[in-house]
Amino acid sequence: MESFGRVERIWIKRGTGGPMDGVPRVQALAGRGLVGNADQGGRRQVTIIEQDVWERLRADVDPRIEPAMRRANVLVSGVALRETRGRILQLGPVRVRVLGETRPCEQMDAAVPGLRRALQSEWRGGVFGELLDDGEFAVGDVVRWAEGQPTG
How far is Cα 45 from Cα 32, in angstroms, rounded to an integer? Predict the structure, then answer.
């Protein structure tokens, strides 16, 4: 049985190391990135994290941590991202090919001491991927796996 999730939050990064701006919707450009986001082109066109992981991190690390501290573009619920390299995740009408695990950087510890270490195992830092479609997705849109089965 196929499970569905939901887009919970969306952020745009103005510049490298810059603030993360929460937005209700975003325009995706296939092969490029999210309109207005600092990361364009390459393999890391969008980054995605899981709400369930963040709830566990809040309990394990610090109840004050917020998902925006991870500096990802999209927070999803209802789908597991662990071990999903090669799968295609659909955010509303926009498909994303998962290319790998997003490894946490030193900016995580600048936000909350110990956060980087807490994110290093079990794909807790989320995933990155390439956009396969032009289109718009929004908070509240359905999230689902477009094809393939979990590899983990």
Answer: 6
Domains of the chain: 4-147 (2.40.33.20)
pLDDT 10s digits, 98-124? 999 887 766 666 666 777 676 777 788
- Distances from the Cα of 122 to the Cα of 3, 34, 41, 81, 92, angstroms: 21, 26, 27, 10, 26
pTM to 2 decimal places: 0.88
Tokens representing 8?
């919970």
The three-state (H, E, C) secondary structure of 3-52, written as one string: CEEEEEEEEEECCCCCCEEECCEEEEECCCEECCCCCCCCCCCEEEEEHH
**Residue 119 phi, psi (nearest 5):** -85, -10
Burial class (CB in 10 A: 0-12, 13-18, 19+), 91: buried
87 contacts 143 by C-beta, under 8 angstroms: no
13: tokens are 């990064």
How are strands ordered across the β-sheet holding 25-29?
33-34, 25-29, 135-138
Partners of 88 in the β-ladder: 97, 147
